[in-house]
């Protein structure tokens, strides 16, 4: 009898994502990644192309808006210079503008923003992006961890009183961000005075890596973070709970329990490990869309994030800034999708075997 035939396979691992990883280790699926990379490169090209053409289909442009605000104080020569600066020279064919746009992107130049005093687009985005990443990113991670863990426990203990959390969190998930945010401001800021009502920090506070500034940022972010966590918690709880109910009916769960394994081990090592796979892909997408910010939430709390910056750029018809923000958003979503595919393939060998 060969050595392979004498190898004992744990029956509780058959049909689970643990089977391949236990036998082969968590190897990186390069062929799977390569196929995805080609697809995402095409998607990136299509997104950048649409990013160039769509704003130009709108009526008017940034220079027209700027000329209207100047009330005729600029000469035609100044208007021509502005159009050349923003790549909106009507004497240049559209295809040539498109090639110039690609040339600028490849050199890391996103243009200049007319709505921020002719500042480089990269600088305008760099000043707003950390606030969005810090606020929405932390809130998304917190809601994912709490919602996934709570959903796993609720699914494991189905039929218990914990099921009451599902309709409660689902109801809270239907509440609009701005409505819950206004309620929090009215209660915790206006009535109780526990937290500030808006902005990222108080006027006059010098930004820096010091205790005073960090405490200001944390206190100002408390209500927006709580708003995002509460509203988004229901989706994570419901998704994980439903997947747990499906996984608990699998044979390997029955075998694991019949072998007398501790419930905690069966819950987290077998049931939750397989049920969490769809959650990981959803989490990656949520991380990608963090870059876009939560526009309404940022408006309610006057938070200087990327969403508020995009609103101002749209009102000013600031094509360069709009295109820069959309480009960063597209890149974030694509990278998040790639990371989700890689994580999914590593955790579930069946995925990369099918793709291969």
Automatic annotation (TrEMBL):
Residues 129-340 form the ABC transmembrane type-1 domain. Its main location: membrane. The keyword RNA-binding does not apply. Keywords: Membrane, Transmembrane, Transmembrane helix, Transport. InterPro entries: MetI-like (IPR000515), MetI-like_sf (IPR035906). The chain crosses the membrane at residues 37-58, 131-156, 177-197, 217-238, 283-304, 324-347. Gene3D superfamilies: MetI-like. It comes from the Bacteria. It is a multi-pass membrane protein. Residues 1-23 are annotated as: Disordered. It is found in: Cell membrane; Membrane. PROSITE patterns: ABC_TM1. Belongs to the binding-protein-dependent transport system permease family. This is ABC transporter permease.
């Amino acid at each position: 009898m060969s050595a392979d035939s004498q190898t004992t396979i744990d029956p509780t691992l058959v049909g689970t994502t643990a089977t391949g990883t236990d036998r082969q280790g968590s190897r990186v699926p390069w062929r799977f990644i390569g196929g995805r990379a080609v697809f995402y490169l095409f998607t990136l090209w299509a997104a950048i192309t649409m990013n160039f053409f769509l704003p130009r289909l709108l009526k008017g442009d940034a220079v027209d808006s700027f000329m209207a605000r100047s009330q005729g104080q600029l000469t035609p020569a100044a208007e021509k210079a502005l159009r050349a600066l923003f790549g909106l020279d009507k004497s240049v064919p559209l295809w040539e503008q498109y090639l110039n746009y690609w040339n600028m992107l490849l050199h890391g130049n996103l243009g200049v923003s007319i709505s921020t005093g002719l500042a480089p687009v990269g600088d305008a985005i760099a000043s707003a992006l950390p606030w969005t990443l810090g606020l929405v990113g932390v809130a998304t991670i917190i809601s994912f961890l709490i919602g996934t863990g709570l959903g796993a426990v609720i699914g494991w203990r189905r039929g218990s009183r914990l099921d009451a959390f599902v309709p409660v969190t689902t109801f809270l998930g239907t509440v609009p961000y701005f409505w819950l945010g206004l309620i929090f401001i009215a209660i915790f800021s206006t009535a109780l005075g526990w937290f500030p009502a808006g902005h990222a920090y108080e006027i006059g506070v010098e930004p820096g890596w010091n205790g005073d500034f960090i405490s200001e940022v944390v206190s100002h972010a408390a209500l927006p973070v709580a708003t995002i966590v509460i509203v988004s918690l229901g989706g994570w709880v419901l998704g994980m709970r439903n997947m747990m109910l499906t996984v608990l009916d699998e044979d390997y769960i029955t075998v694991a329990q019949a072998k007398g394994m501790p419930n905690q081990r069966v819950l987290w090592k077998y049931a939750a490990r397989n049920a969490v796979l769809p959650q990981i892909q959803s989490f990656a997408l949520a991380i990608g869309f963090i870059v876009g910010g939560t526009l309404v939430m940022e408006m309610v709390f006057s938070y200087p994030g990327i969403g508020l910056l995009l609103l101002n750029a749209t009102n000013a018809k600031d094509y360069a800034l709009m295109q820069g923000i959309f480009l960063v958003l597209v890149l974030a979503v694509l990278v998040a999708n790639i990371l989700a595919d890689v994580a999914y393939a590593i955790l579930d060998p069946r995925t990369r075997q099918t793709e291969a």
